[in-house]
């Protein structure tokens, strides 16, 4: 299929046979293991550790870890394919199941071979542990440079003090990739990145937050009080943390956008199914233009958002990361998924507002896509910055 498409002016939008198999594996898993239990996990805010283990067994977590450290060495497009399918089933479950792919990125990007062998190979692949990514603080979200967490070098180690909040999988993670200021006066050049083991004295994890949506995803706050971290846990060099974090976003935003695309497709599919069954004024409701056009817009948005996400992943894999494109793709996917979820509730009418029907959960789950991994407003600022360079 791809070979034939490549003959058309050298451009194609098809997946390889291997990617089609990966897509089918993730889609089948979602239908079998996630959709039937999603409502229960949401209602009880239950952490999906059992689903994580099943995904790990079939190779759908830790996908971005290079093969030499025991991972799949999957491409970012491969990750996006899987993220869409899991997001279709439940973005709360998929967020917790995929967070290793965010938390490990600073190590993948900046870790030494010894750090990768230990943290990626031994801890994540062999032991099946979890890692959380720690940047956001109570007073510093979008403004990364405004972080107040400090890492002071003392006697060959670093003492970390500060608080990180809204940390996914914090209650269950075995270690963290933590960003802190080693030089408070140096602005973004004073931020450094560290790997911190959970069992290090001085770490306190709060009660998990009770959230509007994505309730199966664990989110909590972490406080570091004189946490002593060996110098060997520094990723890269002092002062490289901001650059590492920005590179992480190039890789993470396409996959987050892909999960939003999956939710968008679910909203569309549920709307189509309902509009085929529900009748008013003697006809199925999709015959009413007011309803049909809502679903048509979902379909157009789905195709556009998926193509933007795939392109943003492809350009990273081509070695030409584009902050403008990754920001635009994630913002567009998040915004259009939000619009689709709202319209799906409208298609269902009063039933859409009831927990008995799936679109109520979609509308609660989708909102966070416009906030985490860069708010839609901040991502537009990035697009403006890149356009006017």
Provide the descriptors you would attach to this structure in a database record.
single chain; 389 residues; alpha+beta; Butyryl-Coa Dehydrogenase, subunit A, domain 1; Butyryl-CoA Dehydrogenase, subunit A, domain 2; Butyryl-CoA Dehydrogenase, subunit A, domain 3; 3 domains; 51% helix; 14% strand
Summarize the structure in words.
The protein has 389 residues and is of the alpha+beta class. The protein folds into three domains: 2-126, Acyl-CoA dehydrogenase/oxidase, N-terminal domain (Butyryl-Coa Dehydrogenase, subunit A, domain 1, Orthogonal Bundle), CATH 1.10.540; 131-239, Butyryl-CoA Dehydrogenase, subunit A, domain 2 (Beta Barrel); 243-387, Butyryl-CoA Dehydrogenase, subunit A, domain 3, CATH 1.20.140.10. The chain has 14 helices and ten strands. The strands form three sheets. Strands 1-4-5-8 form a four-stranded mixed beta sheet. Strands 2-3-7-6 form a four-stranded antiparallel beta sheet, with no helix packed on it. A hairpin with a 2-residue loop joins β2 and β3. The protein is globular, with a radius of gyration of 21 Å. The model is unreliable at 1-7 (pLDDT under 50).
């Amino acid at each position: 299929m791809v070979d034939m498409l490549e003959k058309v002016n050298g451009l194609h939008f098809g997946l390889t046979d291997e990617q089609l198999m990966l897509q089918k594996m993730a889609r089948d898993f979602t239908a079998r293991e996630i959709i039937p239990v999603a409502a229960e996990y949401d209602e009880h805010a239950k952490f999906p550790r059992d689903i994580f283990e099943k995904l790990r067994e079939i190779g759908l977590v830790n996908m971005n870890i290079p093969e030499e450290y025991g991972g799949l060495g999957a491409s970012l497009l491969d990750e996006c394919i899987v993220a869409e399918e899991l997001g279709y089933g439940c973005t709360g479950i998929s967020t917790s199941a995929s967070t290793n792919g965010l938390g490990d990125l600073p190590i993948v990007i900046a870790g030494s071979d010894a750090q990768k062998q230990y943290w990626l190979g031994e801890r994540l692949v062999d032991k099946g542990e979890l890692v959380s990514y720690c940047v956001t603080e109570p007073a510093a979200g979008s403004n990364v440079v405004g972080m107040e967490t400090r890492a002071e070098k003392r006697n060959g180690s670093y003492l970390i003090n500060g608080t990180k909040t809204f940390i996914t999988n914090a209650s269950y993670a075995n270690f963290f990739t933590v960003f802190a200021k080693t030089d408070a006066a140096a602005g973004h050049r004073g931020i450094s990145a560290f790997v911190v083991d959970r069992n290090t004295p001085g770490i306190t994890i709060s009660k998990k937050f009770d959230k509007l949506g994505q309730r199966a995803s664990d989110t909590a706050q972490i406080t570091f009080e004189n946490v002593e971290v060996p110098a060997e846990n520094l990723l890269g060099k002092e002062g490289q943390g901001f650059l590492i974090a920005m590179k992480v976003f190039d890789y993470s935003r396409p996959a987050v956008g892909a999960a939003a695309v999956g939710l968008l497709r679910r909203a569309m599919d549920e709307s189509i199914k309902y509009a085929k069954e529900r009748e008013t004024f003697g006809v199925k409701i999709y015959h009413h233009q007011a309803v049909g056009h809502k679903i048509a817009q979902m379909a157009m948005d789905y195709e556009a958002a998926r193509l933007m996400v795939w392109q943003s992943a492809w350009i990273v894999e081509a070695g030409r990361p584009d902050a403008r494109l990754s920001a635009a793709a994630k913002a567009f996917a998040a915004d259009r998924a939000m619009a689709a979820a709202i319209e799906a509730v409208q298609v269902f009418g009063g039933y859409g507002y009831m927990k008995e029907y799936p679109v109520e959960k979609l509308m609660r789950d989708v909102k966070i896509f416009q906030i985490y991994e860069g708010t839609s407003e901040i991502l537009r600022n990035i697009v403006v910055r890149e356009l006017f360079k």
